């Protein structure tokens, strides 16, 4: 598996992964409101790392470097549980240095378990009722 910086030529595949992953796992969100161009809107001014194997993109992480913040971490549904997310997070931490922060929707129990098993600590739960999320830190 190769981890590298994304280029604009990767964006069609990244858009698809972002859309498919959210539609499959974000049971709390309205999938009919999700669109391919959400990726572009949700990664403005961010550094995008991707995981690739045999010329196929397996997942990505978008980082907001000024704040050492992982904004997005998405793995194609076909590659969940195969270490893709772990490698992306590891490379994100190497790129930014510690401490690193992220937010995770409280309803995303699978992701919260992934982060906690990887050594992330819950700091505070924030957000409006029905839109709560955890702020997590890795030090």
Span between N and C termini? 25 Å
CATH topology: Aminopeptidase
Q: Domains counted in the coordinates: how many?
A: 1
Question: Helix- and strand-based class?
Answer: alpha+beta
Rounded average pLDDT:
90
Q: Which percent range describes the beta-strand content? A: 25-35%
Shape: globular
**Unreliable sequence segments:** none
CATH class: Alpha Beta
Give the full name of the CATH homologous superfamily.
Gcn5-related N-acetyltransferase (GNAT)
Quaternary structure: single chain
What about the largest sheet? 7 strands, mixed
Contiguous helical run count: 4
How many runs of DSSP E, i.e. beta strands? Answer: 7
**Relative helix content:** 25-40%
SSE run = EHHEEEHEHEE
Rg for CA atoms: 14 Å
Organism: Paenibacillus lutimineralis
InterPro entries: Acyl_CoA_acyltransferase, Bact_Acetyltransf, GNAT_dom
Protein name: GNAT family N-acetyltransferase
Domain N-acetyltransferase: 1-139
Q: Care to describe what's here?
A:
With 139 residues, this protein is α+β, with helices and mostly antiparallel strands. The protein has a single domain, classed as 3-Layer(aba) Sandwich (Aminopeptidase). The protein is built from four helices and seven strands. The chain has helices at 11-25, 38-42, 84-96, 109-117; strands spanning 2-5, 47-53, 56-64, 69-75, 100-105, 121-126, 133-138. The chain has a seven-stranded mixed β-sheet, with helices on both faces. It is globular, with a radius of gyration of 14 Å. The protein starts with a strand and ends with a strand.
